[in-house]
Amino acid sequence: MEHEVILEPSGHRLQVREDQCIVEAALEQGVAIHHGCGNGSCGDCKGRILSGEGVQLPFMPLLLTPEERVHKQAILCKLQPRSAMRIEARVDGATELWTGTVISLQRLANTVMELRLRCDRPYPFRAGQYARIAVPGQAGQWRSYSMASLPDEGELVFHIRAVPNGAFSGWLFEQARVGDSLQLGPAQGEFMLQRDTERPLLLVAAGTGLAPIEAILRERRQRSWTAPVFLYFGTRRVEDLYHLDYLQELAISWPDLHLEVCCSDPAFSGFAGPRRLLPSVAERGPWSEHEVYLCGSPGMIEAAVDLLLSHGVSHEHIHFDSFAPSAG
Ligand SMILES: Cc1cc2nc3c(=O)[nH]c(=O)nc-3n(C[C@H](O)[C@H](O)[C@H](O)COP(=O)(O)OP(=O)(O)OC[C@H]3O[C@@H](n4cnc5c(N)ncnc54)[C@H](O)[C@@H]3O)c2cc1C
Ligand code: FES
């Protein structure tokens, strides 16, 4: 069964089946509702139900606060209609695209590749944001990757983990060559340094979640704030660790930076030996005076937020970016 869904304030009218989510149906009908992951993990598609009934499929619970739920905010990539609806939604105009040329490819670890791109014209973004990149040779397939670089550097730097049978990461590790071209959509995401507070920072990065955390760290260093910065970087396996020399050198030259590297692999002999990331964060708390930035898998983010809330950190001081698998 189909229902009419009207988007406000754009006025777009969509026909949406009961087994279809609003973002997916809109894309099929040529309307680009602003979105990121497409699977309920990033919050970029947040909108509001103005009238009508819908079913909200499961999404990462942290994306809507209790107050937002009371005000009928909804995650539109996980919302299916059950009647005619009116929905407040952000609709992107004709999407501007950039062409990025691969200028270098470097293995940072067994499973992590650094990809450097130079765009055909300036690519506006803030440290911590991500780009949607088209998967070469697969029409309509896009993946999200966070910039590890700063906007004024003239190059975009990404840290990309190999995912078994991954469309984009498989292409990157097996076929990509210097000189190849990639298409990029505009920078997205709200994971950025809060510039209106000089609270001490707690940064927690799991795996390639280090990419946007490095960008935020570097932006923070450019500011003349004096509060300390605690960086926890962790992986499960030793072979997935990367940038340790870079981070150690940074910590030596920047006395305000406290670096903890955690790897739960029994083979890890560096730093304090084998340790798990979140228990190590918990040990050093409380973090209630800190502005907290978390980046990694959805599971890590959910566990970290639970931990921090239970340690008295309030929601408004926790910022996160969840590297969920993409839905296209
Ligand atoms: C906002 C955002 C920012 C991101 N930034 C980065 C980044 O900086 N670096 C980075 O490495 N990744 C990042 N990701 C993840 C990235 O977008 C892709 O999802 C990932 O690289 C897999 O894409 P792929 O095409 O290689 O694999 P796909 O073709 O999408 O997946 C292949 C198979 O693997 C499964 N799969 C995909 N991802 C995972 C996973 N994480 N764990 C288990 N199974 C999985 C899929 O379900 C599928 O079955 C980010 C994601 C989001 C939402
Ligand atoms: S696009 Fe809906 S939560 Fe990411």
Question: In a few lines, what is going on in this structure?
Answer:
This protein has 328 residues and is of the alpha/beta class.
Textual characterization of the structure:
- The structure is a single chain.
- This protein is an alpha/beta fold and 328 residues long.
- It has three domains: 2-88, Ubiquitin-like (UB roll); 98-184, Elongation Factor Tu (Ef-tu), domain 3; 201-322, Rossmann fold (3-Layer(aba) Sandwich).
- 20% of the residues lie in helices and 31% in strands.
- The chain has a five-stranded mixed sheet with strand order 2-1-7-3-5.
- A hairpin with a 2-residue loop joins strand 8 and strand 9.
- The longest helix is centred in the middle third of the chain and has 13 residues, at 210-222.
- The protein starts with a strand and ends in a 6-residue tail after the last strand.
- The model has no long low-confidence stretch (mean pLDDT 93).
- The site of flavin-adenine dinucleotide has 28 residues, from strand 11, strand 12 and helix 3.
Q: Going across the biggest sheet, name each strand in turn.
A: 2-1-7-3-5
Main beta-sheet annotation: 5 strands, mixed
Count of the domains: 3
Bound molecules: flavin-adenine dinucleotide, FE2/S2 (inorganic) cluster
Label the structural class.
alpha/beta
Rg, rounded, reads 20 Å
Give the low-pLDDT segments: none
Count of DSSP E strands? 18
